[in-house]
Amino acid sequence: RHCTDVICCVIFIVVILGYIALGIVAWVHGDPRKVIYPTDSYGQFCGQKDTLNENKTILFYFNILKCASPIVLINLQCPTTQLCVSKCPDRFATYIDVQASYRYKPDQWNYFRQFCKPGFNNPRKSVAQVLRDEDCPSMIIPSRPFLKRCFPDFSTKNGVLTVANQTTFKDGRGKTRNVTDLREAANGINNVLDARSVGVKIFEDYAISWYWILIGLFIAMIVSLLFLVLLRFTAGVLFWIFIFGVIGIIGYGIWHCYWEYDHLKGIPGSDLTVYDIGFQTDFRVYLQLRQTWLAFMIILCGVEVIIILMLIFLRNRIRIAIALLKEGSRAIGYIMSTLFYPIVTFILIAICISYWAVTAVFLATSGEPVYKVMANQTMCKYANLTCDPETFNTTNVTKLCPGAQCTFAFYGGESLYHKYIFIFQLANAFVFLWLVNFAIALGQCTLAGAFASYYWASRKPADIPLWPLFSSFGRAIRYHTGSLAFGALILAIVQLIRVILEYLDHKLKGTQNSFTRFLLCCLKCCFWCLEKFLKFINRNAYIMIAIYGKNFCTSAKDAFFLLMRNVVRVAVLDKVTDFLLFLGKILVAGGVGVLAFFFFTQRIPVFAQEAPTLNYYWVPLLTVIIGSYLVAHGFFSVYAMCVDTLFLCFCEDLERNDGSTAKPYFMSASLHRILGKKELSPKKA
């Protein structure tokens, strides 16, 4: 063996080093506190230690009516002054009422002014000037903190939306408004709050049932292992039971169609044709026609004949497929360590996801505070322009646009780094996809090398290497990093294009241009098909790399033409394998799920006292079912890779050898018996 695709290997290493450098730069410039802490109108964090806002952890909005929805409040900037406060208001009050009574009710003024700008303590200032300069809010509403922001304390009383049991409130500008004016914000907030309540209960369920969930997943692992072992003996039985079951069901369908056809004979109107009655929204009308049942019977007869003919002409290839499945089970039995390799792939992918997510957050939070002019007047020409809060009051903006303010908008900058943040985010996503695909490719090549060493052993298991999995992993890393990176690169490019197309489709959903939507739909479909094709080619190319040690392009070409020369066998093996593994996944997930259902609903008398009391029994139940399916998928993915590897080795064996003494077959005795004498020639592979 020698190193393959060295140039791509060097590029891959350079890209990884560049990715690390990008992460370091992002960590230097980024500040995750911008995500954790809300930011007031002055660009200061609420609740940040060693600042004036250390004890003010909640963000308060002067006029929440200016904010369209809570989504705008969380992600964008609402066009109203925002201050950090220590607690949310707990009562209704307006600035007009508080100012009028501040002399004989100073407590009300002291309470209200904590929601004014820091340092403001001039109740004699006219209401018009206070509201124009936004020194204080025109009103305060009973609120509660959510996501560290003050939202109105909505509740429903007898089906009526209320705030602190009131349906109306004064807006501080001389109007009495209904609470329903806040309905758009209320609906979203209450839904999220309800979800938070449900989330707390779900967390409680997990806290008291995690032990039993782990036991359920362990049972799923044991059942998956048993299924793989038993496939050596039951693969053929399961497949033929399913096939004859399908034939029997279709046969019953043919008989039922004939019975309905004969039963409708002589009934008035049953001899009409579909053309005579035209299109009907009630499809039961068609079931009253003899022609409908005749058509069903003809279609089912055609399907039945096709299945029977396929079984007759493809019986030998089906037997080969079943024999390969049994051989795969036997190979895994000799190399049990391969069943646990998916854990390595999972760890590598988890590292990639974590690094990508952290880097993306730091990139998104890079930059300095950017301030923009927030004007109450829609015709203000300075609205949304950048400004400097320190010199804003000395400009003409406040004169031309009364009430305008220079408030914090977002984090950004004008430097070269800040201008290319979007490009860096794309690069972050692209390298992430490349690394994930490389981790998957490394796993496939490692497993293929281990199972190939089993197939090409003259005496099984005596000639199998001592540590086949570790040896294969070492060969893949030492010699074929470049080839694996090359295959992963091609796939990552296609996946990035698909991500961009999905983004464009999301942005253009509201457009009325039907041609654009049609073009995007076609492109998405084409690249989806291309990705599926490339995954198929890459998978088989990695197998050939593990067997022969050639570069990626040569291996992909050899694998493709080898599969094309055995295209019927490929199709049969693929469908037989997919069916049996899907049956296994359903069996494992369904069996463990049924057991978990009876346990968590306390329907097993022996364990009734052990079962935890839950808010929602479906929480651990769904976790066990989904987890069992994923556990089974992890084990069965190894089995599928084993079968694919053995199949390519089998095809190569047929083409390279002829069963003679000089060129003996490496296949097992069961495969040799199925082939028979007529297929001992390499030309009839």
Automatic annotation (TrEMBL):
Belongs to the CTL (choline transporter-like) family. It catalyses: choline(out) + n H(+)(in) = choline(in) + n H(+)(out). It comes from Oreotrochilus melanogaster. One of its GO terms (molecular function) is antiporter activity. The chain crosses the membrane at residues 7-28, 210-230, 237-255, 293-314, 334-358, 431-456, 477-501, 579-600, 621-641. It is a multi-pass membrane protein. InterPro entries: Choline_transptr-like. This is Choline transporter-like protein. It is found in: Cell membrane. GO terms for cellular component: plasma membrane. Pfam families: Choline_transpo. Choline transporter. The lineage of its organism: Eukaryota, Metazoa, Chordata, Craniata, Vertebrata. It comes from the Eukaryota. Keywords: Antiport, Cell membrane, Glycoprotein, Membrane, Transmembrane, Transmembrane helix, Transport.
